[in-house]
Amino acid sequence: MTERSTEGEFRKILDAGDEDELEESLRKAQQLRWINFDKKIHFYAPSFMYYKTSYYCSSPADFSTISVTGKGCGLKCKHCGGRVLETMYPASTPEKLFELCAQLKRNGALGCLISGGCLPDGTVPLARFVEAIGKVKHELGLTVFVHTGIVDYETAEALKRAHIDGALIDIIGSDETINEIYKLNVTVKDYENSLQALHQTGITFVPHVIVGLHYGKLKGELHALEMVSKYEPSAVVVIAFMPIRGTEMSNVKPPEPLDIAKVIAAARLMLPTTPIVLGCMRPKGKHRARTDVLAIKAGVNAIAFPTEDAVRFAESQGCVAVFSSLCCAQICLDIVR
């Protein structure tokens, strides 16, 4: 099970009923991680969420998230309902975006994530902000990641000319999930076209694959990874559905830690030389502790907001822990291959 692994072999991973059944795949995934990367494991704790353990304490200012649509979103997805936007700084005009970034810089910021709600077609209205984003890079020198939503070549090329540090994009591998959860009238092909556009521009881009978005069940994650693997991503972030209070899916059970590990293992086996990250969106508590340890067994290079159990386990495996207050997408810049 290397780069030539068959669809049947990956299907066997996803069908594993417990860790014992997944053990061989985890072993091979971790072996690939050791072969292709050094012993460092990167842990990220950006400022948008408070994080304090005996190992590290997050900075209140180093890295913030910004929404160019404020609290507005044209989709109101079942899993989010716009609630995530409420945690971001609003900047609804290019002028406000630059002013906000300048203020954040004065307060000690090292970087930011520029995101926003989607239009009804699944795009984030970034075009009119590109000049301001370029100004943020040129005049303020901040690390800037941009969450694009569905994106065309022209927008991707404009973001590259703005010299952003990376484009982040969620990739969904099921038409049913897109239509039912995102409430979007697009298809998987639109997401693949976005990957193709990003790849063609040569921009640094980091696809995110969401485990269990379809009511907590696996559906389309393997297809999402297959699409991603065609376009030489700079890194891949695996995240997981977590219920958010006040949304249509607030009472839906999240995917099991083992399901998340299955997707990570499949990602590592499918993309042996690509940095793989367990991202910030995932359930907390004991669920997170279990997920984090399994993620390390499955060969991740990095984890956002790791539990203490994860750090201890990584060190017990001979890893060297490196902490950062920036976004986990920074992995593609922190790993020199």
Could you explain how this protein is built, in words?
With 337 residues, the chain is an alpha/beta fold. It has one domain (7-334): TIM Barrel (Alpha-Beta Barrel), CATH 3.20.20.70. The chain is 38% helix and 15% strand. The protein has 12 helices and 11 strands. It has helices at residues 7-15, 19-36, 94-106, 130-140, 153-161, 175-180, 188-201, 221-229, 257-270, 286-297, 308-316, 331-334, and strands at 40-44, 63-67, 89-90, 111-115, 143-147, 166-171, 205-211, 236-240, 276-278, 302-304, 320-324. It has an 11-stranded parallel beta sheet with strand order 3-2-4-5-6-7-8-9-10-1-11, with helices on one face. Helix 8 (221-229) links the parallel strand 7 and strand 8. Helix 2 (19-36) packs parallel to helix 9 (257-270). The two termini are 22 Å apart. The mean pLDDT is 95.
